[in-house]
Predict the 3D structure of the following.
Amino acid sequence: MEENKELDALASKIAAQVSLSENLQGIVTDAVEKAVRDRGLDKVARKAGLFGGAPLAPSEEKRRFERAYLLGILKLGINPRADLDDAVVKALSEGSATAGGYLAPPGYQAELEQLVPELSEVFPYVRKVPVITDTGDFPTLATGVSITWGRAENEDIDIADPVFGHVDWAIAGMSAVTFISRELVDDANPGIVDTVQQLFAEAIAAERDKKICVGDGDGQPEGLVSASGIAAVDGCSGAISYDKLLALKFALPRKHHAAARWVMSENTLSWCLRIKDEQKMPILRDPLIADAPSLLLGKPYSTQADLADGLIFFGNLAKYAWFDRQRMLIETTTTGGETFRKHQLGIKVIERVDGKVAQADAFRKSGAFTVPS
């Protein structure tokens, strides 16, 4: 107990005297707020305080979280003046079933969220819809207002009500987990954190894109392939050609062209590279301006590995709704499952989402194209 008092006093001295960098101060604040939210301390009135004894005021509990966090930094031998871009983990005990769990490394989740869109080719362009329930419906416009001409004097005006529809959602969980030996965590340089982070980012990015394209809607998002109502364009099958791609492009209503893009497999994209226009120039050309996207018939494209070769979608991905019930959650443990027996650190990522085409008219699809002749 005396040692705890001394450590607590030392943490107070550090907090008062050390000039923290803005990066570290932000990490401490974010970590404290996340820990308070994750443990329900902002909502649940408990019979006993988090740190034992009588319940504490929220401000006092937050202050103690900050001290505990700074102590964790000291125990790892990290200079508090340094920017903590690498993972910092701190064992926390609450006297509950979750005692001994690890606080997710501050900054890890935010950086992972930032990496995922960079790796995704489809997800960044869909519409993200935050929801607060596990099921519900999303309103859509089935038919717009129609305008009529030629009404004679004193005759009734035709009724032109818009027709609304809806898309139902049912939230499902997406998760990934990996285990790292504690020896590797203890001995490795910060590169191991970057490696694990990159693996998670790649897995999540690939899975989001996959379900947006080919999800079957059974306990997972419904993708473009399974969605009903997306019209297949007549004549867009067989040997892929310049004329067939033009037909597919201009079968999409003009109002959706501004934000439209192609979606296909990489093999199908390679077939498009072989096609030449009427001037014998490739229809897929490198951009003339640095960092500008490559275009196919004047429109950008995305590829997804699980799409069948020869199938091409063209449309506005913003008309695909991604229902977000719970943003990406990262949890780590050294006591859950067999991690204690095997002396491992387990890292888990969970996301609760659903996805569906909100407006099928904003898309067109081909039949089964084959290699150009």
Q: What stands out?
A: The mean pLDDT is 74. The radius of gyration is 27 Å.
